[in-house]
Amino acid sequence: MVKPLAFKGEKAKVKKRKAAPITEDGPEEKRIRELASDTHEDDSWVNADSSGDISGPVVIVLPSVKPTCVACDAAGKVFTSELENIVARDPATAEPHDIRQVWIASRIAGTDNICFKGHHQRYACFTHIRPLRAPLLIYLVVFSYLSSDNIGSLSARNEAISPEETFICIASTDTSGTFSIQTPRETFISVSDNGKDIRGDAETISFNTTVRIRMQARFKPKLKANKELKAKEKISKKELENAVGRKLDDDEVRTLKKARVEGDYHEKLLDVRVKGKHDKYS
């Protein structure tokens, strides 16, 4: 290996290593950060169980003979698209294979209304006139939302959210995990018997209006809560002993682990510390 030229009596330069950033995070905060990163990377598809779950990328699976879903093209035309990623024709296992089958669901603040944003984007150009200066061109990326007009025709061409772009997902009382999507005119999105036509003018809830909504697991609140609960349960005996400052028996370990789940960990930790001091001087 070729070494740099050095002279007699010259001290070798020692490269300074950057010190790791000092953080005050304990084992619990570190675990929560790991939990957040794990949840962020979970792109598996699950069923929405309630209207409160519906958020982020979703697939609206229709009750047709051939498994289909609601899709739209770049021109904003809404149509039924056949699902290919499905196990044994079970709609509860459906996943999208085409970006046109995916909608971004978001809730209108303060209401139960949900809007569905399409995948396609357009560029809008605006000219800003400035006195004594050259005009400034502003380019914006705009998306379109699913809407239902006064005759029940569905499209995805409107770039702003109005009442026509808002829907209410009503959970089915017969089949868990299914919904009927209600339009602002109190009609419902339905698919025809042949599974080819989709409209928003059905007046009553029926089999043809019952859809299943598939969503990504990282956006489901219940799964996030379950992962956080599991993260709180996963703590070693050594970590608990370091927090208390002495050796613990099995009963004390079980008590502290249970307290982490129930939310009174710090109170129980203080009790165990006080108990240890009393035992020491007894």
Describe the fold and architecture:
With 282 residues, this protein is α+β, with helices and mostly antiparallel strands. The chain has helices at residues 27-41, 221-233, 237-244, 250-262, 265-281; strands at residues 45-47, 56-62, 68-72, 78-82, 103-107, 114-128, 136-148, 154-158, 168-171, 178-182, 188-191, 198-202, 210-216. Strands 1, 2, 3, 4, 5, 6, 7, 8, 9, 10 and 13 form an 11-stranded antiparallel beta sheet that branches. The longest helix is centred in the last third of the chain and has 17 residues, at 265-281. It is extended and about 75 Å long.
What is this structure, in a nutshell?
The protein is an alpha+beta fold.
Itemize the secondary structure elements and their pairings.
Layout: H1 27-41, E1 45-47, E2 56-62, E3 68-72, E4 78-82, E5 103-107, E6 114-128, E7 136-148, E8 154-158, E9 168-171, E10 178-182, E11 188-191, E12 198-202, E13 210-216, H2 221-233, H3 237-244, H4 250-262, H5 265-281
Number of strands: 13
Q: Give the mean pLDDT.
A: 80
In terms of per-residue confidence, which ranges show pLDDT below 50 for 5 or more consecutive residues? 35-39
Helix content: 10-25%
Order of helices and strands: HEEEEEEEEEEEEEHHHH
Calculate Rg over CA atoms.
29 Å
